[in-house]
């Protein structure tokens, strides 16, 4: 089992490393958001928050953004593999489909974490700093769980689709509201009740809040509560993905 998971994970990492355009391109949007929002809304945020630094608030949200988009679009590899015949060879191999799901999930999540770490390092250019090693370790746990959850979502959706364009349309329809309503760019306090309710049922809200609480100390719901929620959701989506993979046809 470990060998299968390792092989599938390594395959995705090699694809990622060999595609330099993908590596650089997926950093463009998060860095654009960081610079544009950081400098554009920084003075306004500082004024209404009593002098707080907006970059400290924004940086964890942008790191999460990088993880989110990279993780969820890892499902494209399943559709690519289906179109080029590799998925059929994998499914008929004498291995469990649960192992395939786990291997692809860990592969996609690992790539997403690498993207998140690169963005976290780049935020230091704008002055963001993680206070200590303990905060960084807790932050990495949240990054890992966010990556697992959204890689699982991407793979779960991809397992039921054969059309790449349709997959991208569905993800764009889902992911942008999930990101913008998660509190990554603005505080959740004092929102209209309807928007606040939607934010509370947005799974990324707890990932953003937990990561922000871990590495900046700014948390709305509490780091331990966020950890329990995002951890539980990650397990649930992986179980759902495993069931759907077991029923999948190449």
TrEMBL record:
Instruction: Recite the UniProt keywords alphabetically.
Output: Membrane, Transmembrane, Transmembrane helix
Q: How does it sit in the membrane?
A: Multi-pass membrane protein
Query: Which Gene Ontology CC terms are recorded?
Result: ATP-binding cassette (ABC) transporter complex
Gene Ontology MF term list: ABC-type transporter activity
Domain (ABC transmembrane type-2): residue spans on this chain: 21-248
Q: Which Pfam families match?
A: ABC2_membrane
Q: Where in the cell is it found?
A: Membrane
Q: Transmembrane segments in this chain: where?
A: 21-45, 57-80, 101-127, 133-158, 170-188, 227-245
**Name this protein carries in UniProt:** Multidrug ABC transporter, permease protein
């Amino acid at each position: 089992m470990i060998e299968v998971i390792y092989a599938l994970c390594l395959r995705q990492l090699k694809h990622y490393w060999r595609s330099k355009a993908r590596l650089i391109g997926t950093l463009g949007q998060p860095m654009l958001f960081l610079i544009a929002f950081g400098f554009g809304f920084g003075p306004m945020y500082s004024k209404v928050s009593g002098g707080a630094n907006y970059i400290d608030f924004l940086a964890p949200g942008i790191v999460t953004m990088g993880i989110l988009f990279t993780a969820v679009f890892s499902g494209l590899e399943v559709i690519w593999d289906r179109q080029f015949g590799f998925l059929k060879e994998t499914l008929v191999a004498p291995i469990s489909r649960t192992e395939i799901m786990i291997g692809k999930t860990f592969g996609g999540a690992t790539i997403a974490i690498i993207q998140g770490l690169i963005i976290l390092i780049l935020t230091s250019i704008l002055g963001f700093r993680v206070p200590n090693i303990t905060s960084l370790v807790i932050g990495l746990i949240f990054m890992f769980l966010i990556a697992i959850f959204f890689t699982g979502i991407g793979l779960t959706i991809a397992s039921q689709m054969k059309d790449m364009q349709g997959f991208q349309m569905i993800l764009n329809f889902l992911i942008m509201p999930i990101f913008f309503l998660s509190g990554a760019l603005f505080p959740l306090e004092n929102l209209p009740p309807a928007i606040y309710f939607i934010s509370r049922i947005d799974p990324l809200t707890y990932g953003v809040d937990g990561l922000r609480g871990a590495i900046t100390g700014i948390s709305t719901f509490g780091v331990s509560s966020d950890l329990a929620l995002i951890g539980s959701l990650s397990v649930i989506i992986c179980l759902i993905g495993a069931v759907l993979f077991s029923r999948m046809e190449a």
